[in-house]
Amino acid sequence: MDPITHLASGVVAGGALRGRLDTRLAWPLAMVSATVPDVDVFLPGDPEFFLRVHRGITHSLVGGAALALLTALAFRLFSRKLPLRATLPAALGIVGMHLFLDVMTTYGTQLLAPFSDLRVGLPGLYIVDPLFLVTLAGLIALVLRLCGATRAGTDARTAARRRVWGRRAAWAGVVWIFFYPLTCLNMGNGVRTAVAYRLVAGQEAGPGVTDVRVIPDALAPIYWKIVATRGDTVLMGSARLGASAAPLNLTAYRRADENLLRELGERDSLFATYAWFADYPVMVRRALPGGGRAVEFRDLRFTTAVNFLKPLLNGADRPWPFSLTARFAPDGTYAGLVFERHGRAFIRPALE
Questions:
Q1: Residue 307 has what DSSP assignment?
Q2: In this predicted model, what pLDDT tens digit does every residue of 55-72 receive, in sequence order?
Q3: For 130, phi and psi rounded to 5 degrees?
């Protein structure tokens, strides 16, 4: 998930903690615990290091537990009202909430690191979910209003009742943090059931479709991305919740050549890492000025199939995020690579 959603989940959890930790540090503890796994984004390194490390050890069960312990110990230094027996379970639970939200996205999370680099992902949420964020913001406003300073003249009984209702609202928010992604995942499964038969039966894209996946698209859970395989072609389309019988507006891509990726991986390990990282790899061949050529590898996770969002996210002048391009000289020899991420290009010439 995006950092703002993680931070918002920490604020909600902090409101729930105030009933167990009677201190003003309950909210800071919760907010730090909710965001600390993302410390990996600040680690220096090249793109290959980023692909391997982000959502790696700091997002694993082992690493998350270690970060929770460090967070609890750090806050213990600030106040004796925060005993480890109370702060450690709270930090563990909130770090676990962070891991849960990340697992529910399509990016993938290495829950078993350092013992395995398996990327675990349940496609229920888009990386940024506006509806989820808005509902969390509403819950936060309610919790802060109920748990905040009382107005002058308010009697102690009324103030205590407001705090009780504030904690209840916060716990309702904690339940929502788990309920919403699981509900979205179920919605996606329903969309897949509706469109898979049409595709496999050849009603939408002709015969030969052998695999159909449905993952969240921008503005999920309203819009869902359809990714289907047909031989050496990968089809990407869009389905809207409640209108899955409508045309899917499929776009065809050439599936990435695994043998080519393997050969390139022997020249530069970034290609091997990319083959491990990408879930729906496709490739585009194009000519380069001066007679050379390029093969660009893309992952369909990091684009949109929603027509009115394509100009914004997939404009012709916008490089695909998390794309890797192999460049070849006019004589066919490998010349180097270009990796694109969030508008930044990493260029590395052919290794000697």
A1: G
A2: 999 999 999 999 999 999
A3: -60, -40
